[in-house]
Design brief:
alpha+beta, 3 domains, 3-stranded antiparallel sheet, 6-stranded antiparallel sheet
């Protein structure tokens, strides 16, 4: 009971009114952009670029992130049963599951350029204790930067609104988009594509408003005010005939001449959009086949290595730097991500690859079975690195036969023992 009371006493919430009153006002000049980026600006696209964001975010969310412990070689040893691991794998908060919050991370990173992982409820106050764990977290973005603090806009589930709070940089993970210069700079390839798409949409809207765009040539010279009023009256009569007619039919005098102008305007906007889209795909490691799901394993491998892996490295390194103390990192704790490359291999090739991995004792059958949609087998041999094509007893005998034999010179050994005063 005392331990539970102590946890409640030391628990801390970022949005609590008590902490807001105790918030200190940071000193120094404020800036709406990061000081090391003089032209940094937060942009939010609301065009077809969202399809690219969605594709990238889904692929990022498919990579599992875990709080783990490693051995002295930096290899995975076990998964830590921590609140941070629960947030990354099960539920990030009351509204978002593990995959949902990972997708939120990616979307915020792409649209804002800088993403913040904000611990909302923690076991201890991060400002006074280093041994704290995260109960839930929210994803936000930076509004203002100061030397040791940032103003973050994030969702507060208690008020149901997004709120702006000042937090120390030491307790939040600030992650920058690795493709910032491609996606978020004001004159980047993506922003130029957004601008061209906006212009193209405006041209399409103007050309599809249903205007006739005609010129009426009247049989008299229009120079005086009386003639101008007469021409305006005649134009109004034709408009009334067209709008009042069921089929849009009007009549004119035999001396009047009508010239049609509503023809398509030639421009190179579409060509520029296609060029910028191809350039953006090249810079992001995307292809049309990746977007529509028909890419082969080579293209997917290149995409995962060039695009998804740098994003995942930035996310896990940012969280490990802020959410794990130096003592925890010394003990082997870290944050790792795990991909499933076997999902990208066609089923026709998967059998040969699985046989080669199992026969050469690289992977166990239970590690390969989930790749083809099967549950791990409870058989003990399914979790062992053995060659299933050979009997187990022959493998043991083969290992013994292949083990190096140590030849011992008994006379030399006995002499050495006598010199040491040890009886053989």
């Amino acid at each position: 009971m005392g331990r539970f009371t102590d946890r409640l006493k030391h628990a801390w919430n970022s949005f609590s009114a008590e902490d807001k009153q105790q918030q200190y006002v940071p000193t120094g000049s404020a800036s709406s952009s990061s000081p090391d980026r003089p032209r940094f600006r937060i942009f939010s696209e609301r065009t077809i670029i969202s399809s690219i964001y969605t594709r990238l975010a889904i692929d990022v969310a498919s990579v599992r992130i875990e709080h783990v412990r490693t051995n002295e070689k930096g290899e995975y040893q076990e998964t830590m049963p921590s609140g941070l691991n629960e947030c990354l794998t099960v539920a990030g908060n009351i509204d978002q599951s593990g995959s949902h919050i990972r997708r939120d991370m990616a979307l915020t990173l792409f649209s804002e350029g800088v993403m913040v992982v904000l611990p909302v409820n923690t076991t201890l106050d991060p400002r006074s204790s280093g041994n704290w764990d995260i109960k839930d977290m929210r994803i936000g973005h930076v509004l203002q930067w100061k030397p040791f603090h940032v103003q973050v806009r994030a969702y507060n589930e208690k008020s149901g609104q997004k709120e702006d709070i000042w937090v120390p940089k030491s307790m939040v993970a600030i992650i920058e988009n690795p493709f910032y210069s491609v996606m978020n700079e004001p004159n980047s390839t993506l922003q130029r594509l957004v601008h061209k798409l906006t212009l193209l949409d405006n041209v399409d809207e103007i050309s599809s408003k249903g205007k006739l765009d005609i010129i009426i040539q009247l049989p008299y010279v229009i120079k005086s005010e009386a003639r101008k009023k007469q021409a305006d009256k005649r134009r109004g009569e034709i408009e009334d005939q067209l709008t009042g007619s069921t089929y849009g039919i009007a009549y004119t005098d035999g001396t009047e001449k009508i010239t049609q102008l509503n023809r398509s305007v030639e421009n190179n906007l579409l060509a520029q959009v296609q060029y910028l889209q191809a350039q953006l795909f090249n810079e992001l490691g995307l292809t049309a086949e990746i977007m529509n799901g028909t890419a082969d394993d080579v293209a997917m491998l290149n995409y995962m290595n060039r695009t998804i892996e740098p994003i995942m490295d930035a996310i896990v390194e940012g969280m490990a730097m802020k959410f794990l103390t130096k003592t925890a990192r010394t003990q082997g704790q870290t944050i790792m991500y795990f991909q499933t490359p076997l999902k990208m291999i066609p089923i026709s090739q998967l059998a040969d690859i699985a046989d080669a991995l199992s026969r050469n004792q690289i992977a166990t059958p239970n590690e390969l079975r989930p790749a083809i949609g099967l549950k791990p087998s409870p058989e003990p041999q399914a979790s062992q690195l053995v060659n299933s094509n050979m009997p187990l007893d022959q493998q043991i005998t083969s290992r013994k036969e292949n083990s190096p034999e140590i030849s011992v010179d008994e006379a030399a050994l006995n002499k050495t023992l006598q010199d040491l005063g040890i009886e053989a």
